[in-house]
Amino acid sequence: MSLYKESGVNIEEGYKSVQLMRQYTEKTFIPGVLNGLGSFAGMFELGQGYKNPVLVSGTDGVGTKLEIAFKMNTYDTVGIDCTAMCVNDILCHGAKPVVFLDYMACGKLEAEKAADIVKGVSEGCQQAGCALIGGETAEMPGFYKEGEYDIAGFAIGVVEKDEIIDGSNIKSGDVLIGLESSGIHSNGYSLVRKLITDLDEEFEGKKMGEVLLTPTRIYVKPVLDLLSKVNINGMAHITGGGFIENIPRMFKNKNHRAVINKNSYEIPSIFKELMRRGVKEEEMYNTFNMGIGFVICVAREDVNKIMEILVGHGIVAHEIGYVDENEGENICLK
């Protein structure tokens, strides 16, 4: 064996994938981007509009939801998921996402599929208002099965130091507002895949696989608008760990607890279907977002204004609970 290609790595396919990706990355370029795809590193200039900027970073992947994408031969939606999981996280501290990088690994590179993934990443970046300034595609024959990919992302945002949201302003009596999710998002799929094995099964007029691939909602633009108009005391992205793990993460003062009214909104049918297939309610709230993808904590007097702003962004939200004193638990579901 004397050629790299004979070992399973096709450099020409890599060149082709970069050319296909370029059309999508360039759609995300915003003021501050200093170079394009193909450099050794991406560069971004923050500019002069900040007094004391703090960089906020986050990284995440899509997880086993990818297996459904492989089986459905659909790749662009998971790119949106990859972006969403990262930008929604850094948003929780009040940061505006500015740059994004992605990493893909595969057994055999197929340029069109790789470009489809980046197309989704690009769409996610456009929804979040950040620039896709670089990435890496690793072809590793024998390590990954042919036709399978892994994808992860890395986001950097910026916030003024005195505007960081860290939960220190949360007080008893604050209201918890839940912003609806678009579905299961990107957590709990190891359990989902055990419960749902027929992706062609019809569910509410669609194939089940299509329902499960609904991309994660990106909350950046509506929440940044809220931050510019009202005070937000805390925020939580409802990812792995569901309500039970993620909502209390917004509390800096551990003497607080979240009281959640489970009947404050209609649980989406896909979650009811998972319960019908055998998942207990407590496990659901400790695994899935249950129809609420993002939670904000605000003063009672700001609730109506916040709801109006969210409606203007097409976001359905619900008053799902409140904050009170910790009574031996950091969250209460009732």
Averaged pLDDT: 92
Number of domains: 2
**What is the helix content?**
25-40%
Q: Which regions contain 5 or more consecutive residues with pLDDT less than 50?
A: none
The value of Rg in angstroms is: 21 Å
Assigned CATH class of the largest domain? Alpha Beta
Query: H/E series, N to C?
Result: HEHHEHEEEHEEHHEHEHHEHEE
Using the 3D structure, state the CATH architecture of the largest domain. Alpha-Beta Complex
What is the tally of beta strands? 12
CATH superfamily of the largest domain: PurM-like C-terminal domain
Strand-pairing-aware structural class: alpha+beta
Could you describe the largest sheet, including whether it forms a barrel?
Answer: 6 strands, mixed
The largest beta-sheet arranges its strands as 8-10-5-11-9-12
Shape: globular
Could you tell me the CATH topology label of the largest domain.
Phosphoribosyl-aminoimidazole Synthetase, Chain A, domain 2
Beta-strand content: 15-25%
- Please report the distance between the alpha carbons of the first and last residues: 65 Å
GO cellular component, one term: cytosol
Domain PurM-like C-terminal: 171-329
Enzyme class: ligase
Domain PurM-like N-terminal: 54-159
